[in-house]
Design goal:
The structure is a single chain. Helices cover 20% and strands 20% of the residues. By secondary structure, the chain is of the alpha+beta class. The protein folds into two domains: 38 residues; 31 residues, Double Stranded RNA Binding Domain (2-Layer Sandwich).
Length: 92
């Protein structure tokens, strides 16, 4: 048993632990959930830097790259069926 700081709010063993509380816990429970509890007197663990997401490629929108473009309004479609359905808008 030892005094532990609740690092992040969590629900463990039918009990709610709120971030910032100091609780008397068994060492087994604290070791089982190291992201939730930190033994008082230990140095805080550094949080890892988040990895940046790669940028998505920008779509090239030109009639040459996508032949499925409405000749009336320029809307691009993914399939010939989609283009056919879209062209009904202009025929009304």
């Amino acid at each position: 048993m030892g005094k532990y700081l609740v690092i992040r709010s969590c629900f463990r063993d039918a009990s709610l632990y709120k971030e910032g509380q100091v609780k008397e816990l068994s060492d087994e429970m604290a070791q089982k959930h190291p992201k939730d509890f930190q033994l008082i007197g230990q140095e805080p663990k550094p949080r890892p830097e988040p990895t940046p997401l790669p940028e998505a490629p920008k779509p090239v929108s030109s009639p040459e790259s996508n032949p499925l473009v409405c000749k009336v309004c320029g809307k691009e479609c993914k399939s010939t069926f989609g283009l056919t359905v879209h062209q009904r808008v202009h025929n009304k």
